[in-house]
Amino acid sequence: MRILALESSCDETALTILNAQADSLVLEKDQVYSQVDIHQQFGGVVPEVAARQHAETIIPLLSANIKSEEKVDYLAVTTGPGLITSLLLGVTAAKTLAYAKNTPLVTVNHMEGHIYSNWLSNDELVKNANKYFPSLVLIVSGGHTELVLMKGHGDYQLLGSTVDDAVGEAFDKVAKLLDLGYPGGPIVSQRANDGDCSIYDLPRPMINSGDYNFSFSGLKTAVLYTLERKKKINTEDVDNVCASFQNAVVDILVNKTMKAAQEFGVKSIMLAGGVAANNQLKESLQQEARIKDLPFFFPELKYSGDNAAMISVAAYYNILNKKNIISGKDLLSVAPQSNWQLFKK
Ligand code: KG4
Ligand code: ZN
After folding, report:
1. What's the 275 CA to ligand 1 centre distance in angstroms?
2. DSSP 8-class letter at 305
3. Which domains does the chain have, with CATH numbers?
C-alpha cells in the first residue's frame, strides 16, 4: 500500500511517500522544509508568516516529488491540532489532489502522528506492536504535554495533561528569558550540558498532585525570579540555570510517567513529540524503564520534530482500522480542526 502524506500544522512543510507492508514500512520519499530560520528573527512562530511560507512551498514540494501520472493508494494529511492558517494550506492541497486523482484521503491527528513516529524508528513495533500494548505514551511538544494510555492501534485514554504551558513552550520561554534565541529546547539542553543542576533549587510544580496533570508556568516564573535576584549573569550562570531548569522538568515528567506505568500495569513506555529530542529526558526514562524491566521506545532525532513520515504511518494504521477515510463528494467538506482533541479521559 502506498500513501502520500502532507504535514503543515505549524512551521514545517513536509511530504512523504510511504510503502507499507504487513511487517515493513519503507519511506520512498521523505522531505521536510523547515521555516525555523525565518521565525528565528521574530523569536517564535508568526502564524501569518508560516501560512505564507506553506503557500509558497507546498506546490514546489509536490511537483519535485511526485510525477503527474504517479499512482498512490491513499493520500493523507494532518487536519489538526495546529495553527489554523498553516493547516489550511496542507488540507487544501491534499483534498484537491484527492479529488482530482479520485483517491481516498485519510485525515490524521498531528498528536497521533507523533506517537507513530516510534514505529519509524523501532522495527519491533512494526512487527509485534501487540506485545507492547497497553503502552504508556508521554507526548511532549511545543503545544502539548500529555500522558496517554495506548491500549491498541487508535485506542487511547488520556490520563493527564498540562494545566498551563506545554513543556516545549516552557523551554522556549526560559530561552527567551536568557536571551538564547528560538527554538529554545535545543539551545537550553545544550547549555545544560555544561551546567551544574544543583546550583539553583527550582520547584517541581504538581509533582505530588496525586493525578497525572502537569504545570510548567510556575517553573518558568521561578527562573525569572532567580534571574531578577542575580542582576548580573555570566555564561556559567546561564549554563547552571539551564541545567537546573532541565533537571526540574525531567524530574517531573519521569516521576509522573513511572507512577502511571505502575498504576496501569503497562507493557512498554513510549516518548513522542519535539521534546523527545532531549537527551536527559530520554536517558532518565530509559534508566527508570530498565529498573522496572519495561521496554522503552523513542523516535530518532529526525522523526521527533514535525515531519510527514509520522503522519503517513498514523494514516496506515487508521486505514487498517477503516478510520478517517474520506472519498468522493465528502472530500469537499474536509476542513482543518485546529483544536482536534483525539485523546479522551
Ligand atoms: O513537536 P514539535 O516539533 O512541534 C510541535 O508540534 O509543537 O515540538 C517543538 C518543541 C519546541 O518547543 C522546541 O523547543 C522543543 O520541541 N524541543 C526541545 C528539544 N528540541 C526541540 N525541548 C527540549 N530539548 C530539546 N533537545
Ligand atoms: Zn508536533
Report:
1. 4
2. S
3. 2-115+304-333 (3.30.420.40), 130-299 (3.30.420.40)
